[in-house]
TrEMBL record:
Highest taxon listed in the record's lineage: Eukaryota
InterPro entries associated with the record: AAMDC, MTH938-like_sf, NDUFAF3/AAMDC
Protein family membership: Belongs to the AAMDC family.
Location(s), subcellular: Cytoplasm
Name of the protein described by the UniProt record: Mth938 domain-containing protein
One GO term describing the cellular component: cytoplasm
Keyword annotations of the record: Cytoplasm
Example GO BP: positive regulation of fat cell differentiation
Keyword Manganese tagged: no
Pfam family, one: DUF498
Principal cellular location given in the protein's record: cytoplasm
Length: 109
């Protein structure tokens, strides 16, 4: 994946207004199941995003537990959980409208 303004090509990435980095699953012990945990999102949440888009992979193999969605909602953040191509398109549309949006994207399965 390519992020505008960044020379790095990512396999999995975290993005927020003005920044991005590799999403290294080893940092939090993430696997396809149980999937995305609040610890995976904390960094992006702390950037002050109002909406967070989660890309589950091309075949949607990456799970997103209800507890993770609840964590975001408790923090006043709207969340969208989508197949990665759709997630990227939604992220780009929101960012173009000036929404304070962040995302975590799994690019493969």
């Amino acid at each position: 994946m390519k992020v505008k303004g960044c020379s790095t090509t990512y396999k999995d990435c975290k993005v927020w207004p003005g920044g991005s980095r590799t999403w290294d699953w080893r940092e939090t012990g993430t696997n396809h199941s149980p999937g995305v945990q609040p610890a995976d999102l904390e960094e992006v949440v702390k950037k002050g995003v109002k909406t967070l888009v989660i890309g589950r992979g091309m075949s949607e193999a990456l799970q997103v537990p209800q507890s993770t969605v609840d964590y975001l909602k408790r923090n006043g953040i709207d969340v969208l959980v989508l197949q990665t191509e759709k997630a990227v398109a939604e992220y780009n549309a929101l960012a173009a409208r000036g929404v304070q949006v962040g995302g975590v994207f799994h690019s493969t399965c």
